[in-house]
Amino acid sequence: MALIEIQLSKSLARALRLPRKSPQRQQLKVLRKLLKKARFTEFGQEYRFDEILLSRHPGKKFQEMVPTFDYNKIHAAWWNKTLEGKADVCWPGKIKYYALSSGTSEAGSKFIPITNDLLRGNRIVMIKQLLTLRTYRDIPVKSLGKGWLMIGGSTSLQKGAGYYSGDLSGITARKVPFWFQPFYKPGKKIARTKDWTKKLEEVVRLAPQWDIGFLVGVPGWIQLCMEKIVERYNLNNIHEIWPNVGFFVHGGVSFEPYRKGFEKLLGKPVTYIETYLASEGFIAYQDVQNSRGMRLVTNQHIFLEFVPFDNRNFDADGNLVENPEVYMIHEVEEGRDYALLLSTSAGAWRYLIGDTVRFVDKERCEIIITGRTKHFLSLVGEHLSVDNMNKAVQLVTEELNLSITEFTVAGIPHGLFFAHQWWLGCSDQADEALLRQKIDDKLKELNDDYAVERDSALKDIYVKVLPEEKFMEFMRLKGKIGGQHKFPRVLKGKMLLDWQKYLETGSI
Fold it and tell me: Looking at the DSSP assignment, which residues form a beta bridge with residue 367?
């Protein structure tokens, strides 16, 4: 062990000569820490982690020796053994917790390993994020010591053969530190409730008893909770019952489509804080007030790699090709979309998480989430991303003074060609023909490929306005109701068939 450390320190000092706090240096330090911890596991022995650690360029050697994985590939080869109770497979020890994650398109649940090392890293990142609040201007100081309403999954986990599984938010809430418990709402008893409707009813019932300063959760579900409280107590806005609400910590989806409807429920401005906390780990967070994006966590518990999201590296269905082009953090470019590969302190190795990001400030490692590798529309080369869709909806809602709380899009046949079908969740009076025109126009401005194809093989777009409750009810029927579940922005395959059946019959 000492020999390895001496060799690493000398070789890195000579070969790299990096500034102490450079993201590249931080990431290589994280990689070495992960490799050293896991080198005696089955995975570490298979891919010769000791040899990688002794290399003069461990990052490049790691990429040469360890293949990339998606969920199906790593589960079939490695993670399935941990579900059978085997220890020291991809990470030292037995895996006692799994986050159930189906994303927004997959049919079956994914079992993502969760370890104490990962949860510890997540907590450290959360504390670091809280410390950045001191740099914010005019923050509501009174809110800092008030309650945190965290709307997430049930802490009552499913018991398997030697392990527990459930939402990451449920696992995290179950392990809330003792010092945080007085601030944590709705409290452990309600947090254990599996029935989302009953949980929401309890939150609404107890709302007058709490003094909330922070709201934490996916925008759609937090908005629904506030709407129910405002309706139940005949309020004008949420600040009439919780005057100290000063922060909304959100993540998972773009907030912009929700902003207008969300702010209608407020009596005064709040500070928005965006986070990127996935089942696989805490990846990024907003550390500067009103910043364009979130800063990647480069010095804690996740080693990041970036695959250009293009036709060379992904097939038409969004699957990663063999031997893709992969970059480390110092090799990326601003303004280009990348799919993320993660190596984590829970035994994920070069793992395709399924999200795509774009660097908006490379020097600060600041990114925005642009979509999912399988959530895009390119029937005829229009290359329409979720980021394009979010931006178009945001611009249209601002222009028409509407609140569109949810939306989804699908590609459909149009004679010998194709069209896009949009479904918009809106409780305001809305003109479908005007929305169709406006969304189409905005997308043409945002995306040159889309504009070209609208004059060619993409013959039309259709817009259908639905009550926002339709989207929530569909998620309930799919068993995806709750704090961590998001409605997919692009529908394909079975999810599209189920959605079309639901709209026709009310069932799936």
Answer: 294, 359
